[in-house]
Amino acid sequence: MATNKSVLNPDQRLKDIEELKSREFDILVIGGGVVGSGIALDAAARGLSVALVESDDFAAGTSSRSSKLIHGGLRYLEQFDFKLVREALHEREMMITEQAPHLVKPLAFVYPLHKKYFDRIYVGAGLILYDLLRGKLRAVPWHKHISFGEMRNEARSLNPEIVTGGLVYYDAQVDDARHTVMVARTAKDHGAHIVTGALVTQITRTPERVTGAIVTVDGHSINVKSKVVVAAAGIWNEELYQQFGIKPGYKIKMSKGAHIILPKDAIDAKNGIIIKTALSVLFIIPWGNEWLLGTTDTPYTEDREQPLADSADVDYILNEANKVLLPKLRREQILSVYAGLRPLVSPAKDSSTTKISREHSVDHPLKGFVSIAGGKYTTYRVMAADAVDAAVKDLDQKAPKSSTRTIPIIGAVGYKTLMKQIAGLAQSYSVSTVCVERMLNRYGSLISDIFEVISKDPSLAVEVLPGAGYIKAEVLYAATHEGARTLVDILARRLRLVMETSDHGLSVAHELATLVAPTLGWNEADISREVAAFEKYIATEMAAM
Ligand SMILES: Cc1cc2nc3c(=O)[nH]c(=O)nc-3n(C[C@H](O)[C@H](O)[C@H](O)COP(=O)(O)OP(=O)(O)OC[C@H]3O[C@@H](n4cnc5c(N)ncnc54)[C@H](O)[C@@H]3O)c2cc1C
Questions:
Q1: How far is the CA of 383 from the centre of ligand 1 (A)?
Q2: Residue 80 falls inside a structural domain
Q3: Which among 147, 200, 426, 506 has most CB atoms closer than 10 A?
Q4: DSSP-assigned states of every residue in 408-457
Q5: 4 pLDDT more than 80
Q6: Can you give the pLDDT at residue 411?
Q7: Among 66, 69, 181, which residue has the most ligand 1 atoms within 8 Å of its CB, making it the best to mutate?
């Protein structure tokens, strides 16, 4: 069961707002994406006092809109970015084995080959290097070569007229938004103070140093005092530099990446597929009862707030996939779309985004202010440690080194034992074994919290939407324990109804808003406002369809 310390909910939020008003912190983190949440955890675990403020919701920015792969990045080998690949593969290993085995899962990919001999030698050499960079100790198998016949068995949807054979290699996948909120809860568990819906508008400073920030929460401005402010606002970092009047040490170039989601029966394949495209690669990724296809990589200069997949993105993904798939995918099969913005650290104005390294930059332009940008989801823990290492230089005290290598994300401890008890748990709580297994892979050992909800009200063991795979107890839990404050937070990020169903959760929006209303203090008018805001969000997100 979750300790009370890790709970994020309206009561906790009010208490932490009081803390923001009344004390000085060692570190104030701006941004509740995976990097900011990781920084809060890293700093709190070093015994520092830390507050995290997020203007919207955990992972509301890029961290809920990735390809959801925990990977070294095969294509970075072609850019000779061996350091990044090795570091990321090391993180992948730790996440699968110790830190987050409940959330990060190994995933096999087929790499189809076209030219019989050249492709096999070239791709095979790349995969030897990829596996060697991870080293001997590994949670996922080594890659293997497969024949044309084995390829047919692996992925019947690959066009046999153009595919001559293939290779199978392994990476891992994660529900990014869910993982981020679990990292934030782990930070909370270690003593971080966390407030979402809290926008940083300015920093405060003396001639010598930064002393804190002005934060707008629930219509009020708070002067939060902190020895160091760390900006982990991803694509918004550049905007913050401008607002604060500080000269940045790096440039951020935004690159949009879109994805489409298709039902499982659209593609006949056992595992993921990676396809080389002219500019990059396209992933076909198994995602529960769906397929996730992406991504694009296009320079972006428009509004950061809600990046959208457009019609051209959808056409590009379908065209690239249809170069190798048979039967061809059709537009009307698409369940949903989404897009995200990569925060790429740009060395020069005119460089093409696809060549920019995903490595991160830590900037420390003046005393009391640090910022971090770039990197990948996979390397968030390393990024967090680097940012806190820079921040502690401006503290009066010495701080221990980062210890997050050995800190499990909440829900990890006890998960493996519970995975052996699925049948018994299903029987005890009158839910299906499929439901228990799925919840274990979303909450780990915190599944006991959900069981407690069901024990109090068995009607909440019912599915939210038939076949969607989520039960109503999870909706309530999102509000009582996981810091969700709006219907969008719940249906787009805590549960993934928005991307996983063609309904997107619209048909149950009012019912689910009513369910969480007592926890979130909503009256009838608030419920109607929430439903309307959710409908608007869906209409905007899905416009390309
Ligand atoms: C299409 C796509 C696919 C990707 N696929 C992968 C992948 O498969 N694997 C991988 O490893 N990486 C992947 N990435 C990269 C990865 O998603 C990002 O590197 C990572 O999520 C960035 O996290 P972040 O915390 O830096 O930024 P964000 O998640 O954007 O977080 C920044 C937060 O700061 C908040 N904020 C902004 N301004 C303020 C303010 N003034 N006050 C308070 N809060 C503020 C925002 O609301 C936001 O929540 C992908 C990226 C994209 C776009």
A1: 12
A2: no
A3: 200
A4: PPTT-TTHHHHHTTHHHHHHHHT--HHHHHHHHHHHGGGHHHHHHHHHH-
A5: no
A6: 98
A7: 66
